[in-house]
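re: ur question from yesterday

yeah so i grabbed the chain u mentioned. its 219 aa long if i counted rite. heres the sequnce exactly as i have it in my notes:
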Amino acid sequence: MNLKQCDNFNYAADQYAVQYLYEKERKEFKDWISTGHLKEQLSWKERITYHYRSKPNPNQHEFFEAQAIKIYQDEKHLFALVGFRHIDDIMEKETTIQNQLKQALDETRLSNEIISAIAKSYCSIYRIDVQKDFFEEVSNDSEIHKLTGNRGCASEKLYQLCDTMVAPEYRPLIRPFLDVSTLSTRLKTEECISTEYRMCDGSWHRMIFIVKNGMSLGM
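ran it thru and got these structure tokens back, copy pasting raw so excuse formatting
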């Protein structure tokens, strides 16, 4: 196909669109496959593709891919090969994958909403890797939980919180509770452990460790 002079091709493409494509699909298809557009695109690309939907053919195929490949180009001419193939099987796989991703996203969103609702009872939440003695702070000021970027050594962080926020008379009780090195043993037969204590401002708080892959702490 010579893309410089090919009025018959444009006419054939127009007739194809009228006969096989739904009305709302026709203009975009004709704009893409026009010799002017193909020449413009293939002047700097070797290959271009376009996906579209047609009326079902006798084999019940309705999703197609058009592909144009540059064959030869000189100062005056540009020759290209245009081909078509049905991609119903590919679209079916993509639809399945998209549905699976949507389901996973919905489940994750629901899980976050549930966690957020529960976590509103806590002023601070930390995710702790007991084996590595590492923590990551989790935001609990919105409907969707996310990591805040505050992270580091879990033991140091927990003892710091104890020594600065817990009332002095309760620190001897709380420090052993915060011992990360013994958490695995203490939680071996329990899904969670908790304790109550008084803060420096006189308010009462509850601290809880919950087993969840790594470890979670709510204060």
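noticed a couple things. Residues 7-86 form one domain. also The chain is about 40% helix and 30% strand.
anyway ttyl
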